[in-house]
Amino acid sequence: MSTNPAAPETGPVPALPRPTSTDRLPGVSPAAGELARVAADRATDLLAPPAPVRLGDVVPAPERVLPDPSGDFTIPADAAIRIDAAGRDVAEQLAGWLRPATGFPLPVTDPTDGAEGRLTLTVSATGGDVGGGDVGGGDEAALGDEGYRLDVTGDGVRITAATPAGLFHGAQTLRQLLPAAIESAAPVAERWVLPGGTIVDRPRFAYRGAMLDVVRHFFGVDDVLRVVDHLARYKLNHLHLHLTDDQGWRIAVDSRPRLTEAGGGTAVGGAPGGWYTRDDYRRIVAYAARRHVTVVPEIDLPGHTNAALVAYPELAPGKTAPPPYTGTDVGFSYLDPHDERTYAFVADVVGEVAALTPGPWLHLGGDEAFKVPAGDYRAFVERAQALVAATGKTVVGWHQIAPAGHVDGRVVQWWGTNGDDPETADAVRRGARLVLSPGNHAYLDMKYAPDTPIGHDWAGLVDVRRAYEWDPGAHVHGVPAEAVLGVEAPLWTESVTTRAEIEFMMFPRLPAVAELGWSPRSTHDWAGFRQRLAGHGPRWSAAGIAFHAAPEIPWPAGRGEAPADAAGRARTAA
Ligand code: TNX
């Protein structure tokens, strides 16, 4: 058990050799396990049962919720998690989330053990058994790739899904239905009550993401893994890594070693740079995959390339190396679109990055190449798109690529602030799908309020309500909901320098965008959302997650100031 609440959930939770004995619980000393059990028993005896979390108090809001107050279930100290084969990895992760605070051994057992489980996780091949009839009617469609059904009765909890991803999302819901103290890294005296009833849930959009700019300031692997954990909590399934920009090159490319050697050491304001080795990147990808998060690597082209030009001056229009750049301007650098060496370079880089990336996407940037004339820009993007397609990956690009010709599956990431964008709508008519990241709603680097100590305001201030009050399905004129692949919340890091500051900008806006991506539009309701979100403040506090105690959220009394202060302190200390 980790005693550092800030540590990411690294590594698989080892299986228990003897499921019935706390003494054998890896990482928990027998004394701590015993103490937890005594404390839990005493809590059961002495404390009035806390009001359980309400079944509908989940973020993002589930599709269907049918509470049954007579079906509350208290997890007993000897509970086991019973699985079928496909559920093992999710069960191990669920056990890893619940063991520290409960102190319970929570062995993972499969049916061949003959053991009884009070928590049951099942991946059903049909996935169609959503039991629509007893959850309030409505459609009985399959749970699909990511949906799940969760039943809490007096006898136990059951999560059913058609895929491990669905089971994982269901397990995250279960985690949220427990008291906030479940986030504690050390045993807590608490009754681990789950509210009775049934949830049937699946996402509105297939693509739900966040972006981390690891260039303007570099963040090490552990910070990125922790961000993956944050995404996974809120059922976000894509992590877009902005890996290259003017201030640094952050991913090793074997055929172009100078990219990192000469271009990787710098960052904004003279901060230390850094880069991911191939193994670092593989570690991030694997950690994310286990949490059903797909990594989307971005190589920003043809602009935002000063670091590449420092490393390989022959790619620069003037064929001389520019000085390294540590400022925050944009739009001044670009690869020479008339030099064939540029395309050999792009082929090498996207080829290696694609080979390291199991996910289907490769993001080629395309934003703010202000110095490249429109015709040259378009021709460049078309060649770069073809080079990405040749790697077998699907092209993603910022919406400036819209005027370029279509390639199969192309995804345009819209970051405008005015939904009237005929070029993007036209790209959609020619076959593109859209990921929505409107700067004035989804940008996590915008300040919350005028006095927010870090962040930008070029797209306006983005408080929690603004992050929540828009509809991805109807945001860009002329783009039908069917063409919308999903949403993404980008975090640019010109002024974001520490893990605590990342969290301060993400929380509570990341859950707001997550809800827009996951929940059916019919659940959209600011009044309800702010109430549900308020209950997450104590969870973040218990988990050591810094957040902005936004004044528009009715946080439970006395909770919430400390982590926000922590981000402020981290900044002053930096
Ligand atoms: C615009 S959004 C950029 C980034 C900056 C960001 C700051 C986009 C595609 N490009 O280069 O970091 O504004 O908010």
List keywords for this structure.
7-stranded mixed beta sheet; 32% helix; binds ligand TNX; 8-stranded parallel β-barrel; 574 residues; 17 helices; alpha/beta
List the helices and strands and how they pair.
Blueprint: H1 30-46, E1 64-67, E2 73-74, E3 81-83, H2 88-102, E4 108-109, E5 119-123, E6 148-153, E7 156-161, H3 164-177, E8 193-194, E9 197-201, E10 207-213, H4 221-233, E11 238-242, E12 244-245, E13 248-249, H5 258-261, H6 278-290, E14 294-301, H7 306-311, H8 340-356, E15 361-365, H9 374-390, E16 394-398, E17 411-414, H10 422-429, E18 433-436, H11 439-442, H12 464-468, E19 484-491, H13 499-506, H14 509-518, H15 526-534, H16 536-543, H17 561-573
Parallel strand pairs: 3-4, 3-5, 5-7, 10-11, 10-19, 11-14, 14-15, 15-16, 16-17, 17-18, 18-19
Antiparallel strand pairs: 1-9, 2-8, 6-7, 6-9, 12-13
Helix pairs in contact: 2-3, 4-6, 8-9, 13-17
The structure holds ligand TNX.
Radius of gyration over all CA atoms, rounded: 24 Å
Bound molecules: ligand TNX
Categorize the overall geometry: globular
Give the N-to-C terminal Cα separation.
Answer: 29 Å
Q: Could you tell me the strand content as a percent range?
A: 5-15%
Question: Averaging pLDDT over every residue, what do you get?
Answer: 88
Structural class designation: alpha/beta
Main β sheet profile: 8 strands, parallel, barrel
Tally of helical runs:
17
Number of strands: 19
**Spans where pLDDT lies below 50 across 5 or more residues:** 1-7, 9-30, 43-49, 127-141, 559-574
* Sequence of strands across the biggest β-sheet: 10-11-14-15-16-17-18-19
Percentage of residues in helical conformation: 25-40%
